[in-house]
Design brief:
six-stranded mixed sheet, 17 helices, Rossmann fold, binds guanosine-5'-diphosphate, alpha/beta, 3 domains, disordered N terminus, 39% helix, binds magnesium ion
Length: 413
Amino acid sequence: MPASRLETPKGLRLHFGLFGKRNAGKSSLINALANQNISIVSSVAGTTTDPVEKAFELSPVGPVVFMDTAGIDDVGDLGAARVQKSLSVLQWMDIAIVVCAAGTWSEHEENILHQTKTNATPTIIVFNKVDLASVDEPLIAKLRKEGYRVVLTSAVERKGIDELRTAIVETVLSQTEPDRPLMGELAKAGDTVLLVTPIDTGAPKGRLILPQVQAIRELLDAGAKCLVIKEDRITETLAELKKAPDLVVTDSQVVLRVVKEVPEPIPVTTFSIQMAYSKSDLFALAEGAAALTKLQPGDKVLIAETCSHHPLKDDIGRVKIPNWLKSVVGDVQIDVAVGKDFPTDLTPYKVIIQCGGCIVTRRHMLARLREARAQGVPMTNYGITISYLQGVLPRVLACHPEAKAAFDKAISQ
Ligand SMILES: Nc1nc2c(ncn2[C@@H]2O[C@H](COP(=O)(O)OP(=O)(O)O)[C@@H](O)[C@H]2O)c(=O)[nH]1
Ligand SMILES: [Mg+2]
């Protein structure tokens, strides 16, 4: 089987970013950790421009991604844009590794520490090039006292690389939070779960999308039985089952049909709601959905994607949700944030409708939520919005009572 088929999706890998001034040795350290020349190392300052992703296995953590970023002391207009990119990556790192050439600690490193502290990002500090200069012992003592893990390295002499690897592994084990399982506590051994997965033009050729595959795997791991059908077989399947299913999980796009055909009290949820639970903060996104009830014609709405897929003619984020919104609310103004680009100024928007984020990490989704909250803009997600616009949100949120209560409370305010 080709290696690509066995690859772990990026959204399931922890992301570690290296940040520091130009020429501190960030790329050299990634090479040393990976034991091969994968990053461009150069003595010309500013060789790494955009953040570069390097995926590899870090034993015993498993599949990870290292982000090699541009120097945070870069100059000029282009340099400033690169610094901005590095800082936006810093927002959602699972671990930040601050790299500083021995003897050159400055306000740039202090600034990164300020950011990682604000975002509660686990942080490791590396003093590199210890073969060239001696380290500032009082500074190291001070940083360690503040709780930072400090490692001394020489990337060229390959000194301290094992210590850095150990520091990363121990930080992962002690300070990072794994994704929550997609199905949470909703299914137990022996349960029968019906998964409704329409196969439309957006479905990838020859396979199912990641949340569907993940759900099947988790249900099997949990010892549940799982039945996967398209939306035109719901009534027939329910009639054939001797006992009603314990749970129905549906793609949001056919949620209306599912809710009509699956009688209460059979619990119904959507893949999207489960994604919000697993990848983000369902409570906050349900609360944010209350903003949809208050939308007026002319209001601005931001639809935020995370992957740069090829939009199809009936693309969910660019076509379907805008059309539904317009038919329910009237003429709202819609902007789409494509791929990983998330606007810095969110204040023009009355609500942000975020995609499920199947290819990014939980920390990445939570960073967006944190930013929206900091700017006072409510955020919800695609699936919650679709269920709301179809009038079935109370039914599909019922298996998450706290999230439902948050939505009910927010609309009454
Ligand atoms: N003497 C010495 N040189 C190093 C060390 N690490 C990196 N360098 C050199 O410093 C320069 C900048 O390294 P690079 O990894 O491109 O830095 P980056 O800009 O932070 O990615 C290159 O010439 C490296 O060979 C080290 O530990 N000791
Ligand atoms: Mg570099």
